[in-house]
Amino acid sequence: MSAASTANAANGRQALRQQLVWSRLLAVVEEQAQALIRTAFGTPTREAGDLSAGVFLPDGRMVAQAVTGTPGHVNSMADSVLHFLRAFPAPTMRDGDVFVTNDPWKGTGHLFDVVMVTPVFHGGRLVALFASTVHVVDIGGVNAGPDALEIYHEGLFLPPLRFARDGALDESVLAIVRANVREPEQVEGDLHALVACNAVGATRLQRLLREFGLDDLQAQGDYVIERSAQAMRAALADWPRGTWRNHMTVDGYDTPVELHAAVTISDDGILVDFAGTSGTVARGINVPKAYTDAYTSFGIRCLIGADVPNNSGSLAPIRVVAPEGSIVHALPPAAVATRAAIGQMLPDLVFGALRQARPDRVPAEGASSLWNIRLYGGQPIEGGPNDALRRARRFNIVSFSTGGTGARPGKDGLSATAYPSGVRNVSLEILETQAPLLFRRKEYRPDSGGAGSSRGGLGQVIEVENADGDPMVLSATWDRVRFPARGALGGGDGAPGTARLKHAGTTLRGKGRQLVPAGEVLVVETPGGAGLGDPSDRDPALIARDLKAGLVSHAAAASIPFSSFAPELSDHHA
Questions:
Q1: Quick one: three-class SS letters along 123-150?
Q2: What does the pLDDT average to over 134-146?
């Protein structure tokens, strides 16, 4: 065999080995995430998948993330690990250490997300860091909602702390947590689950290193990160160079919020500038920069390099800038509990700019931010029937609820789907075992998707009441009430979201704590996604399918020019 053939064979073996290690590493972080789901106490983690898990090199660069999880957690957690390393430099870390924080500016954007980091040692050397995040059901304060005026109102704030030393948990930290939250068993259980899932990841990584005879993860990590960066640069080469701008008005709390983005693609990468965006407000809808970075980069990655692994290499070409003090770069002590209401709009904002560069690749706007139904029992509310509220059974529940996504080029939007967060709707049967709630209705909301050659995804209609007949408190954190998803390229807007009391007929606000009186039924109609393209270009067979399934009404279908219909539909529009 020639020297060249020998070298090629060696290179082939090395490439195969690297692919095997990479595949195993993905399995490790996915097992880490699944261990978290199986051991967590809170329904946001167990049922909705509101979590993240990943492995990092000792210098804090993210190598791999679990598929299970949310972009807001994973991409902001990448920065979080760097903050831990500044507080606890790598040379000072010891086997058996575990570190914790829920600092919104050093974690994932609000106090409800707890981040845990565990160093992993092999052969006496630090070889990796495992990080994971959960959204706990309660963190004290005024409870989950946008009503707080400052971070101090929003609950227990844990700066980066050592949570375990030599494998023993710090009982003083646990005692502080238990004393400050309404659901101590669930929150403490979630903290133990974070420790456990990182430990699972560490054990599996150590086994991988032994099996492949590796001293550490450094060479493999460097290879993955560099190859990912190369692939991302190659994906960017398929897009034109230039700057495109987009503007979006969203509901805000009391007054609308203006979001501006300028997206520039150059040979050096992609820059997103939020100059011109509204300033911070005195309510909990402000967004720390790490969360802005997370969802902005996710929106870009959905369109550019979507098949490239998400790690420090693929994120490196993306740079995000925002004016300090703007609502997307909130500074302490701003209230940030419901930062998702604004932050999850950012992919749509970026899409609107990039559609000008490649209209054939970009979806229309969707419901975007979650329409979670947060209900509390046994807690007073300002101006409410507080004697009755205090006598009621105590509970604290969140039903992860969603609207429709925007229509896609050549495809309809997805109905009742959590984009961009990626969390799952929680089973009603599970919720009814966790709280005295009775869900009377949960179904698609006909006609809520915007018309187009591709139709927007549908929202849903949900009806729920207190099964005990007691009053309860709703904490609304919803957007797309006043400003629905906008159609693109001639498509129609999605339907706005709305909520009301069924018997009284009272329309509820999109944000803030509100009373659901005894015996009332809460009706929530989530927003629909917008349409894409001229509705008259829609395939008649798709119109017939939607009519038959009850997804659109005859009246809505009739609004499309008659000439676009197949003959078999003419009886619907005589």
A1: CCEEEEEEEEEEECCCCCCCCCCCCCCE
A2: 92
